[in-house]
Amino acid sequence: MESNITIISRLQGLIANCLSDLFDPSERYALLDFPNHYNIGDSAIWLGELAYFDGKRSRPNYVTEIPTYSEERMLGAIGDGRIFLHGGGNFGDIWAGYRQFREGMLDRHKGRPIVQLPQTIHFKDQENVDSTARAIERHGNFTLLVRDKKSLAFAQRWFQCEVRMCPDMAFCIGPVTKPAPQHELLLNLREDQEVGGAQDLTAATMRSGTVKSDWPDEPADFQRQTKHAAILKGLLSGRIGGRAKMTELAYRERAQQRFDRGVALLGSAKQVITDRMHGHIMCLLIGADHCVLDNSYGKTSSFIEAWNTCNTDKAQLAATVDEALAILDARRVGHAAVA
Fold first, then answer.
1. CA dihedral defined by 243, 236, 285, 115, rounded to 10 degrees?
2. Helices in the chain by DSSP H: which ranges?
3. What is the pLDDT of residues 127-152, one digit of tens each?
């Protein structure tokens, strides 16, 4: 068994090895596809990506969301530099828009080094697989990082590019202090199209001290408030600058506040049941006692299998909510007996 600190350190080392020849801090580069939405897991990934670059004393020269991408601004900022694409779980066709943007970048920048930061691959339609495969082949200088063995096998079968296994970038954030718990049990369960089939909540919701919440909604003025906070921090740090710098600061602020909101949620209970991959990853970062359920297509279980992230006495994969409850009950009794 490993401690959560050991797991984090081990995976950070694997990330560093994987990216060692793919990033030169002396070069200009872009980081594209900022996740400007409520999914806290994507913000954890973005913060991990920035933490990796920060560790190299470097910041991206151009960042953008997909809707605000500007070819002219990017080329003005990075010249012939490398492009990094934000990691996550959207390499495929389950979430609309990401595949088209990715293929468009490959087609417009043939031969330029493009690195896809760690992703999980999941396609429903073969024609979309073929479209992505053709874009990768035409481009000729694409490196695809994947988070699990299924994605590795899929990519090696269908895509003509270099493919590497790499842990999720959120681990680059490192250990985070866990808040003082206010509840006994948190059910952090999906309410979107990736929801799995193991969510019979009858036994769990009847328990005293149980709360249920997917990632929380954002405050109504979140975009404005984070922009103002970023400007203030930029002024105080002396990093205030042109549009590119201010955009990077605003994105950093939004991602940090979303991540902090997730830490507050996951740390609000003594024990957690989650079916979100980053519910699991963030529980590891804060050292929370938790059980993990799979999502709809096996993304989370494949990740756990690839990196052995449940090799700790504070995390275990379960098939159902009832099984997770039994595991957590046994763990709580065991801890009480030791105490």
1. 20
2. 4-19, 40-55, 71-78, 98-108, 126-139, 149-158, 202-205, 222-237, 243-266, 277-286, 299-307, 321-338
3. 999 999 999 999 999 999 999 999 99
